[in-house]
Amino acid sequence: MADVDYLERGDGPTVVFLHGIGADSESFAFQLEAFATAGYHAVSWDMPGYGRSAPLVPMTFTGLAGRLRQFLEELNVPAVHVVGHSIGGMIVQQLARTAQDKLLTMVLAQTSPAFGSKDGEFQRKFVTERLQPLQQGQSMADIATEVLPSLVGVDPDRKGVELAQKCMSRVPNDSYVAAVKCLVEFEGRDHLPFIAVPTLVLAGENDSNAPVSMMKKMAQKIPGAEFTVIPGAGHLAPMGHPDKFNHAVLDFLARHAYKSDINQA
Predict the structure, then answer these.
(1) Domain ranges of the chain
(2) Is the pTM of this model over 0.85?
(3) How far apart are CA 5 and CA 48, in angstroms?
(4) Domain 6-262: what homologous superfamily?
């Protein structure tokens, strides 16, 4: 089992994709092909404990960011573009605290600068609700069937919905439990004003997990950040609305292409 397993396509400036808690490296299948065609080296990791990547025990954001930094060093490029979706966006925010020199740009897609309420009540309720189905004997495939309709948005891509079902169904139970418990511990609001790399904050119009209003406020706290809303998209925009997602990110990267000059293998 590798420390970090991953998929890759194409040659050019490296773009690293970080998935959410109910996905894996294949969840960015639409992005890998599109970005490779556009002239990028597209890389999608399996978060620790997912796919064939070794688990991280305990799973913490400090540990996840450390594993990401190690992975970026193993890619043997000075710096990369990173697209972090959901918890993946939190991981790259954590990395930016200590290693912004590894980042050319950041795309914070349908994520958050913090999780829950100050008194912790929201977090406790979230963990209970997310883990109760497993405790009652349901499988991850059962959970995927139940929750995906609320996550894929309006008129989603049919193949994307099938991909989302496939990816979520095979998430290991233990890894999902660890990720849910880790997710609610994130707190990164204090660091937003210190993010100094070009950043795109990308929201989904119909995303109730990372609402547009919250993400807009997040973007306003990051110096120079751009803010874009994907029409019709739910929380799983990379799969549910891949063409719109790809267009938004590729357009952003194209306008910061000069940053890629140092990132040639």
Answers:
(1) 6-262
(2) yes
(3) 9
(4) Alpha/Beta hydrolase fold, catalytic domain (3.40.50.1820)
